[in-house]
Amino acid sequence: MDRVSAENRSRIMRAIRSKNMKPEMAVRRLVSAMGYRYRLHRHNLPGRPDMVFAGLRKVVFIHGCFWHQHASVACPLTHIPRSNVAYWRPKLERNKARDSASLQKLRSDGWDILVVWECELADPRAVSNALRRFLDRKASK
Questions:
Q1: 70 near 63, Cβ under 8 Å?
Q2: What 3-state DSSP class applies to 40?
Q3: Which DSSP state fits 74?
Q4: What are the tens digits of pLDDT across the range 11-55?
Q5: What would the CATH number be for the domain defined by 18-136?
Q6: Phi then psi for 79, rounded to 5 degrees?
Q7: Taking residues 50-61, what's their average pLDDT?
Q8: Phi-psi region at 35: left, alpha or beta (left = phi > 0; alpha = psi -120 to 50)
Q9: What is the distance between the alpha carbons of residues 135 and 141, in angstroms, rounded to a whole number?
Q10: Around 79, how many Cα atoms within 13 Å sit in the side-chain half-sphere?
Q11: Hey, is 52 helix, strand or coil?
């Protein structure tokens, strides 16, 4: 049984966007403060990476822990809803499979990838350090 009414749940779900969410904006602010230039959501790349550093052949995905099912046991944001499990479990598994296929295709095309998880943004300094290490590292061949 859902904790909220069907109308309220529908309103909540309609409000969820695929881009320009708080975690994505936080990472964009960090990267901009470092002085890097990037493009957003390139449609011609698998998975439409959130940030594309074309000259560096690097992409950054900012994943919401719930929608992309963060596998970390320490993540407090990952769960399967208790209501309508027959809908949610396959949907979230499809998201994970799609993410995996996109990452594999990008790697095979020579792109370096960093995935920043929503829960990691609780420590902006650590995320900033990881971004700097990733962006400063020479591209893998």
A1: yes
A2: strand
A3: T
A4: 766 666 666 788 999 999 999 999 999 999 999 999 999 999 999
A5: 3.40.960.10
A6: -165, 165
A7: 96
A8: left
A9: 15
A10: 5
A11: strand
Burial pattern 110-131, b for ≥16 Cβ within 10 A else e, equals ebbbbbbbbbbbeeeeebbeeb
- Residue 60: beta bridge partners? 51, 114
Each domain of the chain, given as residue ranges in start order, spans 18-136
**What is the number of residues in the chain?**
141
Tell me the residue type at 6. Answer: A
CA-closest candidate to residue 34, choices 138, 133, 139: 133
- As a whole number of angstroms, the distance between CA 74 and CA 109 comes to 32
Q: What is the pLDDT of residues 84-129, one digit of tens each?
A: 889 889 999 999 999 999 999 999 999 999 999 999 999 999 999 9
